[in-house]
Amino acid sequence: MRFLIAFVLLLSAPSIALAQISNFAKSGNWTINHYASNDSCEAFSNGASEYLTFAVRPNGSRNFYFTSKKLSWVDKDKSYKVKISTDKYYWNGTLSAYRSDDGTGTLYMTAVKAEFFSDLKRSNRLRLDVDGATYGPMSLKGSSKAIEILMACAEAAKAGAFKPAKPIELPYATLSNWDGDSLGKRFSVYDWTMRVEREENLDGSADVYLIASHKKGPERTIKLEDSSFPSGAWGVFPFEYNSEALYFTSFTGGAHCCTKAVLLKPDGNHIDVGTFDGEGPAIKDLDHDGDYEFLTYDHRFLYAFASYAESFGPLEILRFDGRELRNVTMDPRFSDFLMRDFIDDLQQISNDEALRQSQGLVAGVLAKAAQLGMYQAVAPNFEDLLGKLSTDWDLSCSPPTCGQKTEFQSFGAALVFWLNEWGYQTNDALPDEALDYFETLAGLGPEKSSEGAEMACGDRSFEFVVDRKNRMARSLGWEHRCTVTKAIVMGDSALAHALCWGEGMVWSEYHQLEHDGDDLYMTTWDQHPTTVFGRSTSKATARKICR
User: Fold this and answer.
1) Would you tell me how many other CB atoms lie within 10 Å of the CB of residue 470?
2) If residue 5 lies in a helix (H) or strand (E), which one and from where to where?
3) C-alpha span between 93 and 81 (Å, rounded)
4) From CA 47, how far away is CA 478, in angstroms rounded?
5) For a tag site, which of 53, 189, 352, 509 has the least CB within 10 Å?
6) How far is CA 90 from its chain centroid?
């Protein structure tokens, strides 16, 4: 019966079953295997329609199975009186019955005495009589040697030869890669154990199985699509609200695609993270609070404005709260991270003329600007490209998104349409009160600090300019210019953010401004003020500017 159960498993899930079966030896017409599921050794004859199976466990218990397609009439869990005859011995007794799904029947006996195996070893043929029907005779050729090997297998099992190897330990809160060499091996992370198995399908595709469990939960198997070259990533991470989960990905193969990702919770339930282009999300503690986030990008930008190679999308941040994934990209706690990432990209593309002419890259950078409320401040830097229309890439809008097919007159028009369609705000001009405030500052005119003041205040000549038509305000200084992207006015004071260019550099500044008559006082930080004031003031990079 054990062989039948193993055989059914082998048909339904080869990759998983093979990990539980170890071939110990082959001897003539006999195969001796060890089965990890119940730590038993079994020897079975390789008969086509009838075969014998001998089984021995490390504790010494012996089982005997007679299997035949002609026994399809037996009832499961029913016992039958039988006579087993060899050319030298015979035995009368009772055998239990089992019938597999394909109709093959088995009569078996447990707790067999050692003398029974010894008698079979000294015989050449075996016949079984049950309910007036005779089965066999079956050849016992080679059974003597097979039983000897079977007993050696049982001794080896008793000595621990088949105990699984100690799991390979992986680091906690770290994304590790798995590949073809990882298949079948056991791994552990903190309170988790897991392994990956693989199964090839008849249509040429393949699947991988994650078999994993937490020490407080059940073992679960998750099936994902696999590629010709198995690969993926996994790791155990702490998430929001003291939740913990095992993250697992499998690469499906194909041009530019795809990685399927899931989260397995300690209680055995799993959550579909999604299907991602390339390697899938990175997992990082972006705000340094001990909880990890998923870092990916907006896949809608792929092929939207250019080829795959030139496509570029803004970041997306996902957070797991123990029940579901939430998009938390615009949570204020990640604003500094997004700003640094955007400044790095803007710096690179601003200083490379070839990159400045790429519709895909410019679209992605301007989308990041829109994400941060700075589209109007950045777009003028790419007017030469935004005013053109690519002839080798279709930027039109077709039904059902548009009521009828819409042809855009320029790349800029197409970009603004799709950004707004996807929820990115491009109308981020300054409000009237902010324009009025900076017009007052502009009325102060340019001013040069004295040499002593320059050393004390750390700035050079600058002035404010207001563009009412485009609802923008800028400060122009010595070899640099800044565009105000946000401002909150409070009487004679204001809190503002500015994006600055100068001497091949791009940077972001936060200002606290206050004017008193002809005097202007301004304190500047390179981080958001709430971030600065929320930490030790020794980490602040504030400086006083006077005129």
Assistant:
1) 11
2) helix 2-12
3) 6
4) 93
5) 352
6) 62
Taking alpha carbons only, the member of 306, 303, 249 closest to residue 278 is: 249
Pick among 3.30.300.30, 3.40.50.2300, 3.40.50.300, 2.60.40.1880: CATH of 2-158? 2.60.40.1880
Kind and range of the H or E element at 372? none
Structure tokens at 110: 């447990």
Amino acid identity at 264:
L
Measuring CA to CA, how many Å separate 406 from each of 123, 332, 359, 393, 522? 88, 36, 19, 14, 48
pLDDT at 206: 86
Residue 203 has pLDDT above 70, yes or no: yes
| pTM of the predicted protein model | 0.70
Q: Which residues contact 546 (CB under 8 A, 6 or more apart)?
A: 449, 453, 456, 457, 519, 520, 521
CB 419 within 8 A of CB 366: yes
- Residue 111 DSSP one-character state: S
Contact 414, 398 (CB under 8 A): no
Give domain limits for the chain.
2-158, 168-342, 345-421, 432-546
Give me the numbers of helices (H) and strands (E) for the chain, helices first please: 13, 31
**Cα angle at 258 between 257 and 262, to 5 degrees?**
170
Measured in whole angstroms, the distance separating CA 65 from the mean position of its chain's CA atoms is: 46
Is 545 within 8 Å of 525 (Cβ atoms)?
Answer: no
What is d(CA 544, CA 532) in angstroms, rounded to the nearest whole number? 16
Backbone angles phi, psi at 32, to 5 degrees: -115, 120
C-alpha 64/C-alpha 112 separation (Å) is 7
CA distance 56 to 146: 12
Q: Write out the two tokens for 428.
A: 């981020």
The residue count of the chain comes to: 547
Burial class (CB in 10 A: 0-12, 13-18, 19+), 290: exposed
| Distance spanning both ends of the chain, measured CA to CA | 94
Distance CA 464, CA 539 (A): 29
Is residue 264 very low, low, confident or very high in pLDDT (cuts 50, 70, 90)? very high
Per-residue pLDDT tens over the stretch 52-85: 888 888 888 899 999 888 898 998 878 999 999 9
- Give the count of beta carbons closer than 10 Å to the beta carbon of residue 139: 14
User: b vs e for 431-451, b when ≥16 Cβ sit within 10 Å of the residue's Cβ?
Assistant: eeebbebbeebbeeeeeebee
pLDDT digits (tens, 9 = 90+) for 394-425: 888 989 888 889 999 999 999 999 999 999 99
Cα 227 off chain centre by: 15
In the block, residue with structure tokens 């990956």: 196
Mean pLDDT computed over every residue of the chain: 85
Give one DSSP letter per residue of 71-88, joined into a string: GTTPPTT-EEEEEEEESS
Write the DSSP assignment of 130-158 as a string of letters: ETTEEEEEEE-TTHHHHHHHHHHHHHHHH
